[in-house]
Amino acid sequence: MAGLTLRNVGKSYGALQIMQGLNLDIHDGEFLVLVGPSGCGKSTLLRMIAGLEDITDGTIAIGGKVVNDLPASRRELSMVFQSYALYPHMTVAKNLAFGLQNFRMPRSEVERRVAEAARILQIEPLMDRKPRQLSGGQKQRVAIGRAIVREPKLFLFDEPLSNLDAELRVQMRAELASLYARLGTTMIYVTHDQVEAMTMASRIVVLRAGKIEQVGTPQELYTRPQNLFVAGFIGSPKINMLAAEVRADGERSLARVAGFADFALPGLATRDSRLTLCVRPGALHVGGGEVASEGTIRLVEYLGNETLLHVALASGQVLLASIYGQASYRAGQTVPVGFDLADLHYFDASGQRLEPEMPAPVPAQAVSGSA
Amino acid sequence: MSLDDATRLAHDLKLRRLRRERNGRLMKHAFLIGVSCIMLYPLLWLLSASLKPENEIFGNIELWPSAFQFQNYTKGWHALPESFTIFYVNSTIVTVLSVIGNLLSCSFAAYAFARLRFTGRNFFFALMMMTLMIPYHVVLIPQYVQFLQLGWVDTYLPLVVPRFLASDTFFIFLMVQFFRQLPRELDEAAMIDGCSPFKIYWAIILPLSLPAMGTAAIFSFIWVWEDFLAPLIYLNDIKSYTVPLALRLFLDQEGQSAYGQMFAMSVLSLVPVVIFFVLFQKLIVRGIATSGMK
Amino acid sequence: MADFTRRDLLRTAGAAAAALSLAHAVPARAADRAIRLFWWGNPDRDKRTFEVIRSFQESHPGIQVSGETIGWSDYWTKMATQTAGRNMPDLVQMDYRYLFEYVRRGALKPLDDHIGKSLMIGTFDKAAVDGGRVDGKLYALNIGSNSQVMVYNAKAFEAAGVKPDIYAWTYDDYARVCEAVTAKSGGRMKGSDDLSLNIDMLEAWIRQNGREFYDADGKVAATVEDAATFWQYWAGLRKAGVVRDKNKTVLVSPPLSETGIVTGEAAIGQHWSNQLVGIQALMKDPIGAAMVPFMQNGKPGQFIKPSQFLSLSRDAKDVEAAMLLLNGWVTDPKLTAILGMERGIPCSPQVRAALKPSLKPVEALSIDFFQAIQDKVAPLPPPPPKGAGEVREAFTRIGTEVVLDRTSPRQAADMFIDEAGSILERAL
Amino acid sequence: MKRFIARNAPGYIFLLPWFLGFFLLALGPILASLYLSFTRYDMVNAPRWIGLGNYEYMFMRDRRFWKALEVTFHYVVLAVPARLVMALAVAMLLDKGLRSIGLYRAIFYLPSLLGASIAIAILWRQLFDANGVVNQALASLGIQGPEWLTNPDTSLYTLVVLAMWQFGSPMLIFLAGLRGIPRDLYEAAEIDGTPRWRQFTRITLPLLAPVIFFNLVLQTIDAFKTFSSAFIISNGTGAPADSMLFYTVYLFNEAFKFFRMGYASALAWVLLIIIAIFTAAAFLTSKYWVHYENERD
Predict the structure, then answer these.
(1) Do B189 and A87 touch (CB under 8 A)?
(2) Is the pTM value of this prediction over 0.80?
(3) Would you identify the CATH topology of the domain B73-291?
(4) Which of B145, C25, D131, D275 is packed most tightly, with the most Cβ within 10 A?
């Protein structure tokens, strides 16, 4: 087991710089998820850690040891690939044992570990099959088995669940989580699915265009997204974003959001006149709120324990509201909609998070008119 | 869709497919047999020519000989100053060594071109392709001079050594195309499993490329076995002649030729090739569909 | 790998071969002197020649002769390669067509200095020996003479009731014979092959017109008129339908078995006297040998030419040993008996006399023919210049256009003489 | 530097045999032939430098050079597609699970085994004779066949037929390639009710593209270099009337019959450039239609 340190890591293909100045500390025993939209460099980063891709700048250290020039085979890590990459010409047993034999492990030890892995993953009946005789879920287990027999310091997962159907994905997610609980080894897990990230990670790294947007626990990311991108990326259903114009009104700053009455903002360390205010669908109140307006329900999505309403404001913007339990709303209905200032996330014109300096003041009832 | 529906649909599909396949199979066989006849004609003709009296070989399109000249075979075997036994041994030595050389050296180079990253890869690949394009006849003489200076003329070295040095670039290109088809994640998985590049080549790429290797082995065998230009230039001693070279001893432009015997020996010279073909074509069939992993 | 030599391989091969058949042991004689002999051939010739080598080595234990052989079509490729590598065998078999190309480029050594010392050919037919002279020097020793011969199907002649004077017939006679044979067979057997593409026939034609194809300076001396009339003559026969189908004509140098006389599609064909044996072997009907037809004025056109030579190459190292073999080849009764007439008619009267008793009928026919034409043939023409080989090909190519009626004989003749000129110019 | 070595070492080590072969054995003769192309060389005497003389003669004065180019191009355009289509069609027939498929495969390869032997030359002459098997077959359909081999207008087609009929090697390569296409793709398409033709264009062609590309490039190179069949069937001359005067036949005759190795070398380099242009074009366009699975760079 080992921690991992990235210092100023960069990657370029010729003149094309795709990653620059990346710094990251991964703690020993952590389940770190790299998440981001496709093309954000998360797989490349994982492959750089694995040693499958050269780094052009900086250093990568595993367990305190710089591994820049160490080939993948000597980094003492294992990796589960999106396509599983099982050796098609070998049986399951051979697939599991192959890596161990490469490290010249005694036969008895190989057999012990393979048996152990097979037991953990419940693939014992499959040991003599070839990969093409396996179902997707079975292949996935074998791929994981191949990773765990090595007893590596570090596990790398490259979107391992993306080829599975939804049901199987949920099941495997749970199994991976319990595997992590059992092994306690450092794991780095790449996915584009923020639900996977939220459910499994001890910490999440959100990447965009080769840059780290935020690192933090799932809660941190959810409750205090550091920028608009993270706010938009983490959380499902997606956060509502409202463009606000700010003007000074004496001591106070007033915000104007299309469709709402102007309201006073808490103290924010910015002089930008255009902010973005975000509110999670769960915090959007249908039927009131400190700041309120009216909207027309365009669509009702009934999800069982919650109901999702798509509410169009007069301005045309559609907001999402998530309501617990069953609600008797119909499409076409006009409803009041609003939010409380305490639930707002504030972002400046460059998309960076702003922390309110004091508790939100009383709503600005005095301010009249709505746009 | 319920499970029952699914089973029924699958069953239906299967029945339909079976029915269509049976009809299709019959038609296919009929077609293939027809084509086979056209394909077999030259061999039958050759066989019949090898059994015909000399004056029936030409002008007479009848396949059935008026009298069977089996002595074309027995006499042909010993018609030349050395018996064909020697020529077969020689051909076998040259061919077997060449096939081994080709498979080893070309798969090495192909693995490098298809899988490894190194400076100048495209440049070297272009150079390699160039050697495929140059008409052989104009390098014949410089090559002869070169081997002469090495003292290799009148030995098998000029025929065998280049093949251990990947001179038949056709096979490199062939293998490159097949290697590139294998999922790269297999190499990467193997890398992480502690494989050196050589181990990846040996334990992953080669076993997964049996169809390509089988194809290369077959071509290599056939081409070396049938090659006569290089043996013609480099072999002087009739005791070292290969079978195709020996076949060239039968014909005289102006004087008496022994066509019947030559054809008889030509028929026999095909036997090892056909045997090799039948043995190695199984490799092609046994290929593993690796690209179906996604 | 470095020690991996042919000898090792041969030893392996030898062992394996010995296991399979007890026949062939590789003689591992250590000779201090070694020469190489290179010829083209056929199975019969190869066996005879290896037998000559064996016999020669027996009487000359100090000399190792390696015999190298390959069929005609590959012979010249290999020869050129070895020449370029300066690795020519000591003695090489030469053909009249290639002799001048090799001599003029300096690939062969003259033999004159050895005559009378190690090469005892004083009693040989002078004309036959002179066939190997180029620019006054003897570069090639005749090992078999030859002449053009019109081979005819004697049975067909008899059936058609024609009895031409085969040593004096004219082109008109020839046409009449063709008509008669064609008529008699109902067109199944034509009178003759169509010889429009046969440059030897053209050469005879030109000489019969009193000129040479190439003059002594190596220039084209033949005229457009010569070529045009030649092609016209054959076009006339073609039009009359008494020669073989044009589609067979344009197939260049077919194997003996596909020539008109052998397939029975024609009663006359042009061949060389050393081919008589081979032709008869392929045919049921008896054959006869006639001279090339004459013009009205009766000037001779054909000549006796060496069919094959042996030459000493510029790369020969042990010239003395080579001379021993060469001299033995044409004078040693043991060797000449092995060789027989396979390469043509020997130019030594003694050898011919020694062979006479054991000849087969068809071999006798060729000797008789050879004797009969001795005083009716023309002298040797001046040796052809460099590029003559290419002129031959141009002739065939342009002649094909005439035969296929894509151009007129006169136009073609114009084109041919013109092209021959420029070929020779380029070859200089 | 150390990194350079570490990065490149495996590649160079695997290429070592080829490097040795190329730089020690192949490159010398190739450069020599390039040098010879600027000389007059009769193979007996030392080559004599004549600068661009050979090239000048070739382009300005040599009518047969242009004829040879014409014949060769004509052949390439006809024979390559014909042979590839034939090979692919048969390979697909043989790919699906028929019993005794091995037998057919062997039978279909047989013509290619005979190569360009003397037997083929004689056989071809008999098949395409004015009264040969081909014309007899045509006559039974009421068609009067031409005199195939001796008519300069048709003789080339007999070689195209020969090329089509000897489709064994591209067929075998196609077969090997078809084995790599996973069955389940077809099964899925079958369930979707995809018609056969679309299965072919949507599954077979794209997945076979690398192999098709290989065959296309190689067959084109081979066709440009066609020698043996043309040489043996035209008796080494390109006859009748130069209608089978393939480029390499012309080159061979210039070199070995007429002792113009220098000129032949120049011919060879011109051919090399022509082939290289075609090959480069194929490689450049391959980006758009050849996709390798999992290829990252």
Answers:
(1) yes
(2) yes
(3) MetI-like fold (1.10.3720)
(4) D275
